[in-house]
Amino acid sequence: MQLPVYLDYAATTPVDPRVAARMAECLTLDGHFGNPASRSHIFGWQAEEIVETARRDVADLLRCDPREIVWTSGATEANNLAIKGAAQFYADKGRHIVTSCIEHKAVLDSCKFLETQGFELTYLKPGTDGLVTPAQLLEAIRPDTILVSLMHVNNEIGSAHDLEALGAVTRAKGVLFHVDAAQGAGKLPIDLQLWNVDLLSLSAHKVYGPKGAGALYVRREPRVNLVAQIHGGGHERGMRSGTLATHQIAGMGLAFKLASEHISEEKQRLIGLRERLLEALSDLDGWQLHGHATQNAPGIINLGFADVDGESLLLSLRGLAMSSGSACMSATLEPSYVLRGIGVADELAQSALRLSLGRYTAEADVDAAATAIKNSVSQLRLAGSARLQNA
Ligand SMILES: *Cc1c(COP(=O)(O)O)cnc(C)c1O
Predict the structure, then answer these.
(1) Does the chain have fewer CB atoms within 10 Å around its N or its C terminus?
(2) What is the mean predicted confidence (pLDDT) over 361-375?
(3) What is the CATH number of the domain that holds 368?
(4) Which strand (E) or helix (H) includes residue 220?
(5) Is the CB of 151 under 6 A from ligand 1?
(6) Share of the chain above pLDDT 90, in %
């Protein structure tokens, strides 16, 4: 069976072969299998060295101190630790939190949980470009606001927040700023020397590292405190207990190092592929691009097609592995809350396609996708109008 073309890099990426090789060295008897917390022998020391090298590689990508990196099982856990941990620690200062209605579920569900614990949430509605503006944020901050959580790059539409400008607002107001950077890290530059971001969540598997690995950046200057969500042994300066997964961490470290070495050239290549796709679609009419046209992670392309049934469209495009604009492929096609959140009409949202391109996407893949989309959309529209005429 011929596999479909993989155009779902925002869902997950394959592990870079160099990363997989590094991970394999941390598993078996002839490798670095020791427990990084073992202080009394070389097996432990070697594993610790691998973990600390990876910590430096991740910190270098963010321009922060390695001691500000806390390993987690992924961005979901990092978001939970940041939001619940900060809310619980600073609850005496206030109980109001600001976020947006198009955040990842790991942020939204953590916020929903806090609402059951007596916290009050404001869910900002971004513009049609998918972005919350500094003025909008400023207006939402109250005297009892303790935390703002906004994403770096949106996973469905690719829009990228101006974190320097948003961080200036939170810092001026003395409010903590958490950023879910799972989709942005390694794709767009991050500078925690310049940005007033206090907490920042990372995932390895969106950047050619393994699934089940991530980290939370926790600022030391000015110091940010968190209530731990996982107890047991006091690893990671008490913020996240549990034996460190040396192989996962080694993989994440190398993945981030590779990403930082190629960040601008990979971005340029993805811009080229994006433009090639949009150009190829230009002779088709009745479609639109969702999200910001330029302030984005270029690999994420979300398209809406007028006068096409979303389910039929996805079914006719089985040669392309991508995501739809719907929450799931269940009987009732609920339009994506992200597209709804930026004001896309339900009819257009239900036909949306998210194509996400990455390191191994070739020009031929993009050409095949454009041809298949044009054919499917045209055929479905013809069939639709024929049905209307016969009715
Ligand atoms: C994938 C993703 C997450 C979840 O990361 P995991 O490491 O899979 O837990 C969180 N936020 C965003 C924006 C994502 O794209």
Answers:
(1) N
(2) 98
(3) 3.90.1150.10
(4) none
(5) yes
(6) 93
Taking the CA of residue 151 as reference, the ligand 1 atom at the shortest distance is: 13
Statement to judge: residues 165 and 139 lie in one domain: yes
Take atom 3 of ligand 1 and give the residue whose Cα is closest. 75
- Residue 200 Cβ inside 6 Å of ligand 1? The answer reads no
Nearest to 157 by CA among 250, 288, 17: 288
Which domain does 136 fall in, by range?
Answer: 17-258
- Whether 55 lines ligand 1, by a CB cut-off of 6 Å, is no
Identify the three-state secondary structure at position 227.
coil
Residues 157 and 212 in one domain: yes
Of 234, 258, 282, at which residue does a domain stop? 258
Q: Is the domain of 290 the same as that of 239?
A: no
Catalytic residue status for 64:
no
Number of domains in the chain: 2
pLDDT given for residue 391 in this prediction: 67
Query: In sequence order, what DSSP letters do the residues of 68-126 get, joined into one string?
Result: GEEEESSHHHHHHHHHHHHHHHTTTT--EEEEETTS-HHHHHHHHHHHHTT-EEEEE--
Ligand 1 centroid to Cα of residue 78, in Å, is: 9
Asked if residues 99 and 124 have their Cβ atoms less than 8 Å apart, the reply is yes
Please tell me the distance between residue 30's alpha carbon and the centre of ligand 1 in angstroms.
33
3-state class (DSSP) for residue 179 = strand
